[in-house]
Amino acid sequence: MSNSYTIEKYKEAGKIASKIKRKILPNVVKVGTSLKEVCEVIERYIIEQGAIPAFPVNIGINEIAAHFTPSLTSKEFLPPDSIVKIDFGVSIDGYIVDTAISFPLSKGFKRIVETNRMALNRAISTIHAGSSFNSYAKCVSREITDKGFKVIQNLTGHRIERFTLHTGDSIPNIPEWTNRGSFRAYNVYALEPFATYSEAAGYVVERNDSYIFRIKGLKPPAKYRKSWLILYRKFNGLPFTIRWLSSSERRYFKDLIEINLVHSYPVLVEASNKPVSQAEETILVLPEKVVILTK
């Protein structure tokens, strides 16, 4: 991945993501805004910039940590006295950045959000080509626990490759001494610590509902080949939501569900239903420095 074209595409995607966090989200993430509107504003802006959403915008309210996006018929709104996580991705020609920011819609959540963000920033500052994942995780966990909070133990960061959001390496937020991984030059990583309160369980569990899906890259039976080709080619194997499908595509989706060619992402919630904060940046590790693509 050392060629200049690839690096430039990652940087372009990162600039779009940064603008969304800086200029758009503060104007839409407000009490009373509909969840669909938040998603549609972000997703539309990405497309207007000549990119595509790498996955449906995730909105995690309070104990919801990941994998929730509003349904086609959603009537939900951002509630008062809540903590809201907005997690989104930008793809340009398959080069993906992934980022998230938390908004405290109550003063009571301001401290955990600031702690989470500071922990990520400080941990990134320790990274260099060849440094271990565990040294990063040690910094994240120390910064969060020293402030009286708890790290979500079973959510991790991940390496990114072209057209593949999660590939190969998992980057822990709590040191795992069996993990011998290290940051390598010319690789791209999404780093995302989640924090909760000290009395919480400190891990996430799956709910029974799913709103985000991915078409599996498996050869379908001949009867379903048209349905598979249309949806697989449309999303290049990346995650999507039913909100993005036309009425005919929704029929194809049902066909593929029936024959187990659709991977579902269940909503993830904190096991004791305590509020969760999230911070996430995508970085590019170069031999001489680390670039925060989504800052």
Q: Strands, helices and their partners?
A:
Elements: H1 4-28, H2 35-48, E1 52-53, E2 58-61, E3 64-66, E4 83-92, E5 95-104, H3 110-124, H4 133-146, E6 149-151, E7 157-161, E8 164-171, E9 187-191, E10 194-197, E11 204-215, H5 225-235, H6 247-258, E12 262-270, E13 277-278, E14 281-285, E15 290-292
Radius of gyration: 19 Å
CATH T-level fold name of the largest domain: Creatine Amidinohydrolase
User: What is the count of β-strands?
Assistant: 15
CATH architecture of the largest domain, by name, is Alpha-Beta Complex
CATH class of the largest domain: Alpha Beta
Morphology: globular
* Strand order in the sheet with the most strands: 8-7-9-14-15
Tell me the number of structural domains. Answer: 2
**Strand-residue proportion:** 25-35%
Helix amount: 25-40%
Number of helices: 6
Report the order of strands and helices. Answer: HHEEEEEHHEEEEEEHHEEEE
Structural class: alpha+beta
CATH superfamily of the largest domain: Creatinase/methionine aminopeptidase superfamily
Average pLDDT, all residues: 96
From the N-terminal CA to the C-terminal CA, the straight-line distance is 21 Å
